[in-house]
Amino acid sequence: MASSMTVSRGETRYSYRLNHLVQKDIGKPIDAMKHFNAKVTDGRIPIVLTPSYPTLITLFMKVPSGLWVLKQKWNAHAGMMDPGLKMFWPAWNRVSHIVTKQAVTYSNPVRGCPTSDNVMVDIDISISFQIGPTEDDAYTFVYALGAHRFDELLYSLTEEAIRGLVHSVSNVQVTE
C-alpha cells in the first residue's frame, strides 16, 4: 500500500506532508467561521464541518452566512439553509454539514523527484481551490467525495503530475 511506503529514516511517504484536508466535528453551527478561520498549527485544514445533533427542541439557532449549510430532515438531505436566526428548531431538522465557500490554500511538498539526468530535487507546490460555485456542487462534494478522499486525491494527483513534469526535464531546467 502506498501509505506504508518508506522514504527515509523510517518516515512514511505521507509523514512529511504539510497539509491535510479534513472534516471536523463542532458544537454549534454559529461557530463555523471560527473553525474555518482558525490558524492551522497541526496542518489539518477543515473544509467540512459537522455540527452536533440538536436537543429535542432548540429555541434559537443561528445559521452563519458565507457558507454552504446543508440541512437534513429525518436524516435525509433537505436542501440548503438560508443564513439567519431560526426559532423553535425541532430535533428532526438538523444542520448536517457546513462547507466553506472561501478559497483554501493547500501545500504539497514533493520530495526526492528524479530529473531526466537522475538528479534528485525537492519541489514545494501550493494550490488554491474553492468548493462551488453552486449548491449542487457543495452537496456533491459532501456526499460523493468528502474531505478525506479529496485530500488523498489532490495529494496523489499533484505528486504524480509534478514527478512526471520534473522527470521530463533536466536538473538545469528545474533550477531555473
From TrEMBL:
**Which Pfam families did the record assign?**
Band_7 (PF01145)
User: Band domain: from which residue to which, for each copy?
Assistant: 76-169
Q: Which domain of life is it from?
A: Eukaryota
- What InterPro entries does this protein's entry cite? Band_7 (IPR001107), Band_7/SPFH_dom_sf (IPR036013)
Q: What is this protein called?
A: Mitochondrial protein
